[in-house]
Amino acid sequence: MAFHPSLIFIAGALLQIILRKPNYRRAVMLSAPVLAFMLIRFLPQSAGSGFYLGLDLVPVYTDRLCFIFLHVFVIMAFIAALYGLHVNDPIQHAVSQLYVAGALGVCLAGDYMTLFVFWEMMAFSSVFLIWSGRTPASLKAGFRYLLVHAAGGLVLLAGIVFRYMVTDDLTVTLLLPQQAAFFDYLIMTGFMLNAAVPPLHAWLTDAYPEASVTGAVYLCAFTTKTAVYVLARVFAGFEVLAILGAIMALYGVFFAVVENDGRRILAYHIVSQVGYMVCAVGIGTDMAVNGACAHAYAHILYKALLFMGVGSVLAMAGTAKLSDLGGLYRSMPLALVCTVIGGISISGFPLTSGFISKSMVVAAAGEDHRILIMLVLMLASVGTFLSVGIKLPYFIWFGKDVGAQAKDPPGNMILAMAVAAFFCFLLGVWPDSLYRLLPFASNYRPYTLYHLSETLQVVAFTGLGFYLLRRLLVPKAGINLDLDWFYRKGAAAVMRIASGPVSGFNEWLGDLYRTRALRLTYKAADKLFRIDRKGLDGFIDGIARHTLILGELLRRIQTGKIQHYIGGAVVLLFLILIAVVLL
Amino acid sequence: MISSMISKLRENHESLLRYFVIFLVCLCGADFFIERHDTHFKGESVACFWAVFGLIGCVVMGLLCKLGLNKVLSRKENYYADKD
To answer: Which end of chain B is less packed: N or C, by CB atoms within 10 Å?
Structure first.
């Protein structure tokens, strides 16, 4: 049986808790991705097939589509670990390792049940990365995130169960649109929620900006991209994805143009950029799926770079709100350079990773004669350069100098950003280093005179547009309503009902119990007391003593914080999982 | 070093702007001579199509988002604070 790469990260997570010395924990954080990087090259195509609980499980299934995602995930795990190396928070590091383990597990899953287990492992570990923000806002956002993902997980599970009932088959395999039944659409909905496809996207822009600085770097890489991966594996060629993806690409940039919080701007750009990938998956040709994979690979690295750059501003200046920042180029020049490299990569500048991946998706739309989609994607790239390429760095590092006290972040954060920036250029300068990993053979050549002219015209004239509108685009303090309004307001309405009629009924029931039932209880107790006095005292006293000791133990465990209980349940689940895998 | 370089560039922003305009003109000029390949619709054959697309796209998107979307959806920072 092949050694599952997730086990490396699960072991890494356990070691984060067990090891006392921070340097040992740091060594584990960095060595786990290195080990996994070596291991993924030796994975067999299919391994570990086993029969468990009456289900035929395939925990390890690899092909070229899977490999490219594994490849970038372990590279990203290394960069994020390096970025968070100065943070002395074993719990945060442990959950980040579990999160990576979940992402690798989803990629490798050959059956839906294994996929679902790792899918939920990602959801439950990632919420702790949001809570690691350790602010009241992050606590609330984490609960909302958890509820949305629990709902999405249930829809996915319903799809899987129905699929098993009808087809008696749990293999994760490509579907043809005409073959799809209602349960496949349930599975697709579960996947789309994690890919943040509108209208199921608001959890992302609500929660990611509240995560810890390091947590956000992990979050931006894994959840949405594993969703793109499973969509590409199962639903490539579904028209609905092509349309929703194009809408998504534009939706994200519209909000990013008006948003004030730097990390929320980046969160909206995850929606937008994942839109390119979902759209490409929907187009479904070999070139389009190649484009989706290439763009996922490039996006993980430049988006992490952007989150690291803006995260370092948050860490050093205490805020990521554009209206409270300005003139930081004097005090944080290295963070500026790294963020600008991320900004030009996401905007698809020549010689950066975005150019060689995004242009592939746009070309695939054109080759498939989807002109409207092609134009929408080009328009989204105009908005991308406007909001992340120019607006974000301009209002943080230039603009009006607000005299914020800050300096460049610690060396490990700069180094992590430099590594990500290096990859942005490496892929841009040497496209074949990425293209040779793609699932299908590719003869696409990004560097032609026409492509260069096309791209330079779009970005340069977008720059001119920004110059003309620069006074209008000055960010103002405040938030913008999005679809999370429905469940945030909805939750408030549920609370009002709970504290009104439901609570009233509860009180009435309590009164009834006190006035009627208690009298009966007293009488019964009196009778029992007599029996008790005569024979059971000795026996009961013994039990009571032990109960008291156990109760004291339980009291200590019960911190009253629901996050701790969820954490305990998750740890227990993982221990069971490890036991199942090992036995 | 980086910050002093940027400071110098900022001091000479007028000449920077001039170079930028020259760059835009060159870009448009060059587009007349560049051979098109794999064009997917008629617009792509028109010289400077993407320049016009970028400029109009940017301005219209900026105006729409800032004067439309933002006006309708903008709320105070603490809008959800005591309500969720």
So the answer is: N
Residue A310 near residue A396, CB atoms below 8 Å? yes
Is residue A582 a part of any domain in this protein?
A: no
Q: What integer pLDDT is reported at residue A510 of this predicted model?
A: 84
Q: Give the pLDDT of residue A49.
A: 64
* Average pLDDT of adjacent 10-residue blocks, chain A of 583 residues: 85 94 95 95 73 76 94 97 94 96 96 95 95 94 95 96 93 93 96 95 95 96 97 96 97 94 96 97 96 97 97 92 88 93 96 96 95 96 94 90 82 96 97 95 92 95 94 89 87 81 85 82 80 64 74 71 74 70 56
CA B18 to chain A, closest CA, distance in angstroms equals 12
Which residue is closest to A372 within chain B, CA to CA? B41
Determine the average pLDDT of the residues in B29-47: 88
Contact A455, A359 (CB under 8 A): yes
Tokens of A307: 């989150």
- A448 φ/ψ sector (left φ>0, alpha ψ -120 to 50, else beta): beta
Place of tokens 């009435």: A508
Q: Do A469 and B36 touch (CB under 8 A)?
A: no
Q: Is A106 exposed, middle or buried (0-12, 13-18, 19+ CB in 10 A)?
A: buried
Domains held by chain B: number: 1
CB proximity under 8 Å: A 427-486 to B: 448-450, 453-469, 472-473, 476-482
Domain membership of residue B54 as a residue range: 2-73
Q: What are phi and psi of A111, to 5 degrees?
A: -135, 160
Total residue length of chain A:
583
Can you give the pLDDT at residue A582?
A: 56
Q: Are residues A454 and A520 in the same domain?
A: no
Residue A500, domain member (yes or no): yes
Mutate to test the interface with A, among B4, B36, B50 (most CBs of A within 10 A): B50
Please report, in angstroms and rounded to a whole number, the separation of the first and last CA atoms in chain B: 47
pLDDT at A530: 73
Closest residue to B55, CB basis, from A369, A464, A472: A464
Domain-located, residue B83:
no
SS (H, E, C) A328-384: CCCCCHHHHHHHHHHHHHHCCCCCCHHHHHHHHHHHHHHHCCCHHHHHHHHHHHHHH
Q: Which residue has the tokens 């340069």?
A: A460
Q: Which residue of B has its CA nearest to A491?
A: B84
**Domain total in chain A:** 3
A328 touches chain B (CB under 8 A): no
Residue B13 within any structural domain of the chain: yes
Locate the chain B residue with the closest alpha carbon to A364.
Answer: B40
**Pairwise CB contact (< 8 Å): B74 & A366:** no
Of A336, A371, A448, the CB nearest to B41: A371
All residues of chain B having their beta carbon less than 8 Å from the beta carbon of residue A394 are: none
- Domain C-terminal end among A452, A478, A504: A478
